TrEMBL record:
The protein, known as: Beta-ketoacyl-[acyl-carrier-protein] synthase III
Keyword annotations: Acyltransferase, Cytoplasm, Fatty acid biosynthesis, Fatty acid metabolism, Lipid biosynthesis, Lipid metabolism, Multifunctional enzyme, Transferase
PANTHER family for the chain: 3-OXOACYL-[ACYL-CARRIER-PROTEIN] SYNTHASE 3 (PTHR34069), BETA-KETOACYL-[ACYL-CARRIER-PROTEIN] SYNTHASE III (PTHR34069:SF2)
Family: Belongs to the thiolase-like superfamily. FabH family.
Domain called Beta-ketoacyl-[acyl-carrier-protein] synthase III N-terminal: residue spans: 107-185
Subunit structure: Homodimer.
Gene3D superfamilies: 3.40.47.10
Major localization class: cytoplasm
Species name: Flavobacterium hibernum
Cytoplasm as UniProt keyword: yes
Amino acid sequence: MNAAITAIGGFVPTLALTNKDISKMVQTTEDWIEKRTGIKERRIAFESEQATSDLATAAIENLLQCYDVDKTEIEGLVLATATPDHLLAPTASKVCEKSGLINAFGIDVNAACSGFLFAMEMATAMIQSGRYKKILVVGADKMSSIVDYEDRNTCILFGDGAGAILLEPDKEEYGVMKSILRTDGSGTESLLVRAGGSRFPASMRSILHKQHFINQDGAFVFKKAVESMSVVCEEVLKTNDLETENIDWVIPHQANLRIIKAVGQNLNIAMDKVKVNIEKFGNTTSATIPLCLWDFQNDFKIGQNILITTFGAGFSWGATCLKWGVMREKRNTDVSHANNNLLYEMIEN
């Protein structure tokens, strides 16, 4: 038995923060940002009451509106996020409540930008065990809540969003193949939010020193990301008895276009096979992979091989392959990317 993706949903906030907007906030230019990152704009949940749980709920609502899924049959929600609504309780609990998942358990997974891949591996194992038949995997982050918009090195990179997939058993050849996941805690200091946890609880000092915002050593993270993603992709292809020519599409973590291109070159995979939407969404951390699946779902055909790879804080990274299978019947083809943002207002009201 395997676990296959049978439905997809996504959500990004309406407000677009453009490079021009950022150039008025910090010392930079539109062209410099695009040249260094590939990003043109990023979506921002600008109201303080709009939390990660709301983004995740909207993505699930989009999935339920688009596909014929009975939410009372969903048995679990694995939510990948680095920006939970609260340190306690789990954000997945609120998402289950807001989404009406009355028969599902909910757990949070935090592996930063690799969170969705780690969560999907966990859910896949649950499906393969035979104990569960329908599990939602969601990647959602409100990165604007931990970004210092006076820090040019980080504020240009991140956006808010959420993506959701439904995993179900598949007895054919479709679904998630073998994955390889890695962690190296020695890289923690190079990419972290220092304060707010048990090691450095919130204090007046931590607030004054802006220790509740992302801090990263960009050059070191860039180098490690390219190296780690390239190596793990080669390893996972070998593990699944695949060659690069067997791969139809690559979905990399959307952190920086230069990283994506470098990994593609190292793997000798043409860029026309690599799915990229960083120019309009930026780095949405746990949401980048499911947002790509959602954004490009019409391009994927039954039987095609997709290579997914990520890298994030921790350091955490990994790769998996999946064979695209049969999706559930569409419930309402009129629910598109364009009117997806209306779902958020509906949920809030």
